[in-house]
Write a structure and sequence with these properties.
This protein is an alpha/beta fold. Helix content is about 35%, strand content about 20%. The N terminus is likely disordered. Bound molecules: magnesium ion (MG).
Amino acid sequence: MNGVGSRSAGANRKSEVGFARGRSGAWCGAVNLRLQFRRYRAPFRAPVRTAHGMWPEREGLIVRLESETGAVGFGEAAPIPWFGTETVEEDEAGARILGEWTNAEHLAAVPERLGCLKHALAAAKAELAGSKPTAAHKALGVAALLPAGRAALAQIEPRAELGFRVFKWKVGVADTADEIALLDDVCAALPGGSKLRLDANGAWDRRTAERWLERCADRPVEFVEQPCFAPRSGATPGAAWRRKDEDLLLGLAGSFPTPIALDESVAGAGDIERWIGAGWPGILVIKPALIADLRAALRTLEKAKARVVFSSALETAVGARGAMRAAFAWSGERDAAGESRPRALGFGVWPLFADTRLDGPVTMPFVRAEDVERMNPEAVWTALS
Ligand code: MG
């Protein structure tokens, strides 16, 4: 679907839907950027199991910005509404309101609640200006994704033979006692020196999380991701919800030696700042595609010396390239000798789509900076025409 507005896309409509006006209070400035977008609906090769049921297809928006000199940039809005983002319908409506002819001031006025659209537009604008972050690494490790339950066991050896040494296992989907009993079998199947990540997607209550964390203490568990997630009341979590989520997770993090990583808890606007402000001692899973102002977020994380894992939002190669560029530019944690020790990427997702033209590079234990640069947004754009 091609989104094409007109130069007369009304200022009044922008105001009606909450677009912020410039300091002058008026919509001004020449329109010097051409905005096009294509909304896509891309079936996964196999439905993805989530805490909210099966997810059969990815929906999103690829945006294309072109300057008067013919420079082009692409970006992707890949919202995940059950993570608390807007919907793709809202992003499409936002893009239509901007219209085909726009400028930097109008792009900046897109409301905060359309965080994924803001992300896409910022990425496209940066690319158009020729600005890209400098890679700090030649190659980064990738975590191998294991299926939930006993099926994980059969998947470890073939991945280990490919060279994977970081594995991620989905938990919190079956009976707790059965899953905990399986943990030792999974650990025993790992090659020496491997690390295991457990991702509960917020499925556990406090007591269940405590049982797991006790069990993880002497095992090669790199971290437990999102053990609990305070149930939200309504679409916009309020202050009481946030406090409950913080109390629960900070309490767990302070009581066990295995680090805890936050994923669902850091998906909303302002969450990164909030958790850093609360003194979060664990790891933060960053899905760049969901962050409206990625540059500002990365500066905040850097300043706080945060421990970060960069992760896929199951976006196409357009969004994934920007996300992985951010990961390559991130200097990472340092060991005692001052050596950079970046954590394995949460990008072990490809091949992901039924239409392989939307995929990033097929996942190997390491991805090189040059593989990221070879990802071609134009090819995705064309595939979606
Ligand atoms: Mg997760």
